[in-house]
């Protein structure tokens, strides 16, 4: 018999070596070479005796042993096993070929990459190319696609590619109709994280808009809208007073009549997307925005006989409000924004100012206004930390006061001052 065959026969006949050789196999496959150490814990008496005989060392008092693969192999020298390689002996003892994990991993990686590249070829578009490149380059949002691939959910991934290949939509399309067009199921994308991740990746690459790991509802609505998809175009609305809308070059009489009748409008996104233009009732006058519906109503109550233009966002900006503001900016309107004195309200004001720095003005966000409208509501450390995201010299002094006082101030206590401000610029 050859040295290798002698060694395999010897170690197979001694069951006390079984556990050690299984650990050898794991280590070799993990490293990709015959090296390193293995640890045997809870040594049996038989293992202690076999290790003592092999290494000429007493293991009787040891509960565990750290074994070097190289030193174990060196013991072959000068015996009938001389010339055998531990790698070959391990294969013979465990009865199978050793597969290096790195090679196996590389093969799986090549197979996975091939799958996404072939998908891109089947659904050729700029968006699918961006998605494939981002997945292969391990974009932070690629994880959902790899998880689906590893689970074998290949059809779910293909649906996303098919959807991307027909975007952006020339005319706005509602999400259920888009899903039905792509998959045959109008509810396919109702809670589909992968299509949202894919759209974020594409938008980030095309327009430089940062992706988010846990986007909120309004972020998702805006994201879908950017690709011509409407998720909610009826309950997504903004409240307005004193604005004029145009469609196809024609003034909408209903908007004008609403103002004449001293009424407000809850305008849904469904109608806003049809507009060409939006501007104030007096074109040379500013537009005022408040976030609170009670404040909005109180101002309109006081000034309904004035030619004022005012918007209520109802808290966080819904897509309907974003689109109305965008149309006003196209008209180069001057806009004044007022909100609550809390981290969330300041972040809303700051984000709007960042987006349209030449048109948006902070309205009543001074230190004096903050002190004057203080409540007893304490701000937690977690909420105060949100202020770190605001970098605007106009708000610095007020933010410093908020950090020191640690209390919220609300819009409701500013109503008289807000009314006074609007009167001063309106006939």
Written description of the protein model:
The model has no long low-confidence stretch (mean pLDDT 92). A hairpin with a 2-residue loop joins strand 6 (243-247) and strand 7 (250-251). The strands form 5 sheets. The chain has a 6-stranded mixed β-sheet with strand order 8-5-11-10-12-13, with helices on both faces. Strands 7-6-9 form a 3-stranded antiparallel β-sheet. Strands 1-2 form a two-stranded antiparallel sheet. Helices cover 52% and strands 13% of the residues. The chain has 21 helices and 15 strands. The N and C termini lie far apart (110 Å). It is an alpha/beta fold and 427 residues long.
Query: Helicity range of the residues?
Result: 40-55%
Q: Report the C-alpha radius of gyration, rounded.
A: 35 Å
Number of separate strands? 15
Mean pLDDT: 92
End-to-end distance, in Å?
A: 110 Å
Number of helices, where a helix is a run of at least 4 consecutive DSSP H or I residues: 21
What is the topology?
Blueprint (H helix, E strand, L loop, with lengths): L2 H11 L4 H14 L5 E5 L3 H11 L8 E5 H6 L11 H9 L6 H22 L3 H11 L6 H9 L2 H12 L7 E2 H9 L9 H15 L9 H10 L2 E2 L6 E5 L1 E5 L2 E2 L1 H8 L4 E4 H4 L4 E4 L6 E4 L2 H11 L6 E3 L6 H12 L4 E4 L4 H13 L4 E3 L4 H6 L1 E5 L2 H5 L7 H13 L1 E3 L5 H11 L2
Helix pairs in contact: 1-5, 2-5, 6-7, 7-11, 9-11, 11-12, 15-21
